[in-house]
């Protein structure tokens, strides 16, 4: 197993490098870079800073309010849309501040060298490092991802087992109908429905409308802080759990059905073991292999996917909104920094998932399979 893990770890390097190369190359052809964003802001057409809080005079282009005094009738730069009439010296200073005065290859190699040293730079439009920005937004995304995954497993595993045992019954039929309907409902639509029903939209005012905590959270006692946190996170977690809940339930059911039909189950029953002993003493371990081992991947999937709309609807400032705002503003340090970090996390989680398979079922040997 050690040699297999080592090979997988070494494979992370070319995989992550390929991800970064493809995305960096694609960005070179995308119009509306950070310089164009600043030019548009000067001309009163952009909204590059509209989605950002904080920021200061240390960010590139922060002194653009003083550009008007230097703008004459001539000059300009044909390379950037809307730059006509701006002093060439101003454009050159922006290029130097953003690093665009260097060739793309040199910029890419410099970026990767910094990433290897865990230096992810600073946001173009905020006076804060990318790492600090990610750490600032991560609690919201972790809250959504972790609790959604835990609830999905708590509900899906018992329900899936029950459906497998009652396969073909009326219980199995109507619960399958409910699961299919739940899976078909988009998360954002379900989130709006929850707001309308339980957040004062048109019916009951039971849960808060926005935010992760109340305004007076700091003044609350620890028990009240915990209660306030779960009070705020309830609706977003339910909205983000809906699809994972359906998938895991059917996966659990199918895993149990496959195991129940095997010969060792019939042998155990023939020996006179109770149905509960057969089900939970023999079938459970084998049937839960794919479900339990997939926990890290399920958590990462919920953690990264579908969070933007949920965070927007419930006014939560997490990684989903951070990525969207960075893409709109062409904040390349944030875009590439988070891409590198999350790409690395995803690849490592893949290795952890394989290790979970071996931990749950020692009979699995990836080294022999590769051989």
From TrEMBL:
It is a multi-pass membrane protein. It comes from the Bacteria. The keyword Transport applies. GO terms for cellular component: plasma membrane. Pfam families: BPD_transp_1. Keywords: Cell inner membrane, Cell membrane, Membrane, Transmembrane, Transmembrane helix, Transport. Residues 138-357 form the ABC transmembrane type-1 domain. The chain crosses the membrane at residues 9-30, 142-161, 173-199, 229-252, 287-314, 334-360. This is Microcin C transport system permease protein. It comes from Alloyangia pacifica.
